[in-house]
Every structure is written in structure tokens, then in C-alpha cells.
Amino acid sequence: MAKNTQIVKKNKYIAAVLAFALGGLGIHRFYLGKSGPAISLMLITVFGWLLVAAGVGWLIILGSYIWRIYDCIMILSGGFKDSDGKFVRNWQTD
User: Fold this and answer.
1) Which residues contact residue 20 at a Cβ distance below 8 angstroms, ignoring those fewer than 6 apart?
2) Rounded CA separation 48/66 (Å)
3) Which of 52, 74, 78, 93 is the most buried (most CB within 10 A)?
4) 54-71: per-residue pLDDT in tens?
5) What does the alpha-carbon distance between residue 66 and residue 45 come to, in Å, rounded to a whole number?
6) β-sheet bridge partners, residue 7
7) Which pLDDT does position 1 carry in this prediction?
């Protein structure tokens, strides 16, 4: 089985900054074409903030922070794939 070594033409540093700064809204995943997980992350974050008053929202928010930090690490290490299964490793835009 051939290993997929295609690289996406998106800047990994832009994706990492989006993951760090706006990761709770899933903006980095929208940037890379992963709209399904992006919407999930956005809903989890919004739902968590709505439940903060009930006292359990902080656990949900913590989960979304862990998710976005994980994505940021994976993007910077070159192990993150876009919606087409291509690795996000470029640091230059054409």
C-alpha cells in the first residue's frame, strides 16, 4: 500500500496561529477544509460557555482547549492532514 505523501498548499504557520488564537471556533479546521470537525468544535465551545453558569461548562471548555492545543501541535509537527488527506507541511504560500 502506497503511503500518501502529498502536501497541501496551505501555510502551516497560518493554520497554527488560527488554531491557537481562534481554535475554539474551529477556524483552523475551516481553513484546511475540515468543516465537519470545525462545526463540532465550535458547538462544543459555545455549548461549554453557555453551561459555565451551571458549573459544568468549565470541563467542556477544557476539553475544547485540549483539542485545539493538540491540533496546534500536530500542525506544527507536520502530522496534520487536510480534508483531502494531504499533509500540512508548507510554510510558504505560492
Assistant:
1) 68, 69, 72
2) 13
3) 74
4) 888 899 999 999 999 999
5) 11
6) 87
7) 41
pTM: 0.81
42, pLDDT greater than 50: yes
Are the CB atoms for 37 and 29 separated by under 8 Å?
yes
d(CA 43, CA 12): 24
Considering just the CA atoms, what is the radius of gyration of the chain in Å?
Answer: 14
Q: Return d(Cα 72, Cα 52) in angstroms, integer.
A: 25
Pick from 38, 32, 39: nearest CA to 82: 32
Q: What are the pLDDT digits (tens) for 3-24?
A: 556 777 788 899 999 999 998 8
Q: 3-state SS of 49-74?
A: HHCHHHCCHHHHHHHHHHHHHHHHHH
State the chain's mean pLDDT as an integer.
87
